[in-house]
Amino acid sequence: SQGRIHTSAATVAVLPEPEELDIEIAPDDVVEHVSRSSGPGGQNVNKVSSAIKLEHIPTGLTVHMQDEKSQHKNRAKAWRVLRSRIYEYYQSKNRAERDSQRKSMIGSGDRSQKIRTYNFPQNRVTDHRINLSLYSLDKVLAGDMSEIIAALKDHDRQQRLKNL
Asked: 0.85 exceeded by the pTM?
């Protein structure tokens, strides 16, 4: 490095672990419509109500199934499809929520959004949010952040009192 100081920036987001989705569909939340199929199939299609339409009220998702001749097979297939669509619906909802949390934590990632600087040549840690400089970088890197945390709590307390 020929005596030059190299500067780099990093963004960190701390997020809760994603929960495994366990989808329980209450039968009361689903409205089932039975009708005659359409399309090819001759007399059977015209006289037997084998098509199934399931509507999940809380999400508004609907599934229409008329692949099989049997109403029971169509019902089973429709429930499988509905379950997977509801799972995907909630998964994408969780993903969107998680992405917004992440974006709020990281911000723009711009270098001007400094939170903390670790200056190794001077053995100094500076927290820019509260203008605190400590000359104990080795302690902080070893995990002892008690001074910084105490100062942040004190600053937070003062801000809350000021806003009352």
From this structure: no
List domains and CATH numbers for the chain.
Answer: 27-106 (3.30.160.20), 116-162 (no CATH)
pLDDT tens across 96-132, in order?
Answer: 888 888 887 776 666 677 888 899 889 999 999 899 9
Q: Strand 51-56 vs strand 30-35: parallel, antiparallel, or unpaired?
A: antiparallel
The DSSP line for the chain is: -TTPPP---------PPPPPP-----GGGEEEEEE---SS-HHHHHH---EEEEEETTTTEEEEE-SSS-HHHHHHHHHHHHHHHHHHHHHHHHHHHHHHHHHHHHTT--TTS--EEEETTTTEEEETTTTEEES-HHHHHTT--HHHHHHHHHHHHHHHHHT-
